[in-house]
Amino acid sequence: MFGLNAKDMRSLVFVALLLVLAPILLNPFPEGSPLAQFNAGYPDLMQRFAIFGIFAIGFNILFGLTGYLSFGHAAFLGAGSYAGVWMLKLLTINVIPAIIISTLVAGVFALLIGLVSLRRSGIYFSILTLAFAQMAFALAASVLTPITGGETGLQTSLNDPRILDGARESSNIPTPSLFGLEMGDSWQLRVGDWLWTFNAGYYICAIVALIGFYIAIRIFRSPFGLMLKAIKTNQNRLNYTGVSTRPYMLACFVISGMYAGLAGGLMVSMDPLAGAERMQWTASGEVVLMVILGGAGTLIGPVLGAGFIKYCENIFSKINKSVLEGWFSVFPDGMADFMVAIVYPFVGKGWHLTLGVLFMLVVIFLPGGLVQGGQKIGSWVTGRGRKKSAGAATTTPAE
Predict the structure, then answer these.
(1) Any alpha helices (H) in 118-169, and if so which ranges?
(2) For the domain bounded by 6-279, which CATH number is listed?
């Protein structure tokens, strides 16, 4: 179905179910429960899960298939964001043109950078992409202030022309929409103490993410994808056989950059604001962590890695000292203070420390990322089931 084999179809269905049921799955604890702090089913965070999943999927096409490590993908994320905001300002508040133009602009930007960066490989390629990203950040933060808004950023305003929207009667700045459906529209469902929020903007991001995941599967299984895997295995051998790897690498780099631009366009479609900080090297490093943590070269790994890092960033960072004191209030005063003192450095402003520890554990014990962990759990479960069935088969004749 859809040109996919059974295994890939199961992966696609699994991701689709995760995206559809995310508002329910991410709110497993009832309101008022001490564990409700770990609920993540609110629209802004779910949108980030889907958007950064797209970003990571695109980066994995480059890094996972070819082994080329780019430290400059944030430049394409930022370029897509700026292009999207300008479409919302000049053309229409409808998000479709913003998303399309963001993807195309990032693709052109990736083409220009790729033509230079792909003249080198290995660490030299990584340094070149990092240099281009930092130059783009510097230009956006200072030199191109009339276009980018400088350090304050670029956002929509009431006086924007929006030539396709016609006359405006409202005195409020319009919010991004899809043919009248505003991205901020939400519906709530309450069952007892559980409250679930279903957001229009999130499901639009989810649909785009699912399409992006499907395209990534087709790329991985195509002859083009096989050529990229051959480049990763031994690029010199391909060059010796007379195969020019440069066009394949350039096409892969542009596709990966377009995914980043698509993510940037979705960002501004949900919140019409673009800033130079999206082009910083830390944003490029973050997507590298997402892919490695989830499982580089796998299909579903980048999605899991993006969700894991964004969950840690948003959940652990908001756990403050008062929350910890409430959790440990059941212990005697001295023990409660001791527990708070031990845990507090790993939450709040110190959430990076928690992420670092988790990342080290995954790299040490699960080199293949979270996907490898899932595979080990699955093999343990199925292996245990086989042992039980084998034991039952051997005891049945004796009975």
Answers:
(1) 122-138, 145-148
(2) 1.10.3470
